[in-house]
Structure formats: C-alpha cells, structure tokens
Amino acid sequence: MKTPIFLFLLGTTLLTCSCQSATEKPAEEPVDTTTEVHSDHEHPALEVQLNDGKRWEADASTKAGIEQMQTLVADYQKGNMSEVSTLLEKLQGAFSDIFAQCSMKGPAHDQLHNYLFPLKERFDHLESCEGADCDDHLQELEQYLESFSTYFQ
C-alpha cells in the first residue's frame, strides 16, 4: 500500500511544481475564499465553474484518465476486482497520470484542479471504508466521475 501512496504524492508534487509556473489567473477572476472543514484538515472549498455557461476543453490525457477511472469503478462493481485496495491502487495510478501528463493552462486548468481535488478526498474515503460503507463511497465516486462531462469536453 506504500507504493500507491508514494506514486500519488509524487504525481501531486509534480503537478504542483509543473502547473504553478504555467498557470496565471486574470486579475478580474474572483477567488472563492470560503473554507470547508473536514474531520482532520481544512482546505479552500473551490467549486468547478463552467466557462460562461459552456464546458471547458480538457486535454486528451485528462479525458483518458477520467475514462480509465470510470472503467475501473465499473469493472469493480461487475465483480472483476475483489479488493477495494486493488481498485484504489489503480485509481490512484490513473489520478497520478492525469497530474503528470497535465498540459492544460489558464482558467480551464484551474477548473480541472477544482474538479480533481475533491476526487482525492473520495479516494481517502475508500481507503478507510469497510463493508457496505464502501458501496456507498463507490456509488458516490461513480457519480462524481460521471459529473466530469458536465464541466469538461
């Protein structure tokens, strides 16, 4: 289990380093400074926004990564994987790949981050769930992954 966590942290670090230099926010773009408190940590509550009512353009690697995660969850639910830990490891690998292959820039890139960070929280829930609780978290994850097409094309 240490390898997936290491890969996730490595991917997140690479994304943070590579994306911070490529991203500039226009001065007039509002920044949501509300804070959500979760059981053991705080973070800014940033919601994904549409691009003036339209979906953002996502790069091919991002779309492929989301599709891969959707397929992994569907395969698990069909019984093609027996352990949540196996599913989680594969999901984290796809998640890390999205960050590592990120080529998006500007506001679309910022909105992608707003979409991806809550996804990481859903992985955390899966990591600590047991029994029927996992089914609820998997259903929530599946619905969240489906929402990608609401914001990105």
Task: Compile the SSE list and pairings.
Layout: H1 2-22, E1 35-38, E2 41-44, H2 60-77, H3 84-100, H4 106-128, H5 132-146, H6 148-151
Antiparallel strand pairs: 1-2
Overview of the molecule:
With 153 residues, this protein is mostly helical. It has one domain (1-13, 59-153). 64% of the residues lie in helices and 5% in strands. It has six helices and two strands, in the order H-E-E-H-H-H-H-H. The chain has helices at residues 2-22, 60-77, 84-100, 106-128, 132-146, 148-151, and strands at 35-38, 41-44. The chain has a two-stranded antiparallel sheet with strand order 1-2. Helix 1 (2-22) runs parallel beside helix 3, helix 2 (60-77) packs antiparallel against helix 5 and helix 4 packs antiparallel against helix 5. The chain is elongated. The termini are far apart. Residues 4-10, 12-18 and 20-43 have low confidence and may be disordered.
The general outline is: elongated
Question: Which consecutive residue ranges, at least 5 long each, have pLDDT under 50?
Answer: 4-10, 12-18, 20-43
Largest sheet: 2 strands, antiparallel
Q: Indicate the proportion of strand residues.
A: 5-15%
The figure for the number of domains is: 1
Total strands: the figure is: 2
- List SSEs in N-to-C order: HEEHHHHH
CA radius of gyration is 16 Å
Number of helices: 6
The end-to-end span amounts to 33 Å
Helical fraction equals 55-70%
What number is the mean pLDDT? 79
Structural category is mainly alpha
In which order are the strands of the major sheet placed?
1-2
